[in-house]
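Fig. S4 source data, part A: sequence.
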Amino acid sequence: MLENEVDPREMGRKTKIIEYLAETLHGETRIETRMHSQCEVSVVIPAYAEREGIFRPLLSLARQEGVKPEQFEVIVVVNNPPSEPVRQADETQKDWERKRDLYLMATYQNEQTLLLIRSLTNSTISSESTEDERVFLDEIRSSGLKVYAIDKATNGQTLPETFANVGGARNRGVAEAVARFFEQKGTNGIVAQSDADVRFAPDYVVSLIRVFANDPVLIGIVGRMEFEKTAEMEALITSSSSFAQLLMHYRWVTECLKYGRTAKPLSRVWFSGGNMASRAFEVAIVGGVPKIAGGEDPAFGFRLAKIGKVEQVTEVLNHPLDRFSARTAASAGHGQHRLKLRDLIESGEMLVENPDAVKKFGEMQAELNRLKTEKIATIENIRRVITINGNALLSDSDIELMSQALSSGKEMNDLEHSYPHIRTIRASVDQRLAELYPNIPLDIAVERILVETTINDVIREEYEYKLRQLRDDEVKALHGREQFVRLLANLLRQTANRSEITKDNASFANFISEHAELLGEDAQRFAKKRVSEMFTFVRNIYAFGPDADTAVRALKESYPALFDLPENDPIRWTQMKLSALSRALE
């Protein structure tokens, strides 16, 4: 290429960026403050009814280590629909009531969230701020962290009804970040996306920068998430732990079976909105984040994977809350799954999806994939696939729409972005199958799915291998816990000020943390449980200075599951079997 000749590929990239920004930001109120010349990362956080939790992500970003405040910024997209939501076809009455109640709460909370964030850049603090919030605001200001609010909540400022959802909010925020890198810096940067219930690890930003710097061809990543339970979730799981754990594992297996996870390449990376990031310009090149109410995150990852390298990385870490939330569509999102779990537990019925319905749905899904691949997704063929005992599960209009979607040339994961009604159609099929194959008790369903799924020789072989792996890991963990108990007992017996160390949980936890290298890898994990009932129990045991054998015996008597082989506990062993099966199917 001649010295002054323009690279057509680079011109094509630039054209796509400009077109994306023009489409997304036309008529929008923009952030006026210019991006700092040293900025490398823009963190985008959608916030819907998050007044009570917004300081969780902001404080953790203000406390970042190994990075200067000039190297990153935060964009919070405070959003809600322009009007009270209407009930969708895939929502129960209870789903809709929760969504409506959240909307009514959001219209007030979002106004307060905007005031709090804006007070970071001016001298006015909302009169409704609590004393704690004022302290938090002072800390964030002192840190030098730049936080900007995009108002998509005030009347006249909301996103259009069709995409006033989490995907639309994410897309508005990342477009702003892309524009700031493109228009103000002229260089590519990193756009990170997360949620408003997240606490970022202290090295989150520096790890993010390092990951992309070490691999120039990498364009997108999904990081590691370690969920932290809310008090409400902890209480629910504790009160019905056996059922809750079995139910969650059962649902993992049924999701794999229904949506054909076995047919997906193992290398495929599934993005999560709780912790994902990409190079800024590549966001624009793929058309941004799909503007849908749930599932926008994996779909965004699939878009990126079409044009470059994406990876799952463990060093980029944050901690979302394990909470109940109606913020996404009823059929999507971690918070919605938790709501369904609570509903089922509180109902006391303990009934779950029938394995026959799961199997039939999976067969239909696989056959529809085949029709699409072979380009024979005609109305007649689709009607044949979704007909049981002479009765079609969908109306003629839904079948026609499905034929159009499957014949469109788009990938299966992209269909519902172009054909939003597909999500409703899927829910309708689920509902009809539930009528044909009624829900059954969980224990019966679990036993059936374990037996019937492993009839397949390939799946059974992988399942048995995964089960051995899980058991070996658990046995290793059991030995590690016992070793920790013994080492701690011996260490304390050699310590003169044992009574001072065991006087309260904080002192005991600090002592364990200080000697973590000697006590092994379980030490730090245990120290973090300082507010738990078990931690207090353990501290009280060690206050008497027991020898190692006595300490182990006392803990085994009170918490046998922590030290016993998994196969000795029928429920725990079944959970492990389901976990192994879900891994085999993935």
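Fig. S4 source data, part B ends here. The radius of gyration is 26 Å.
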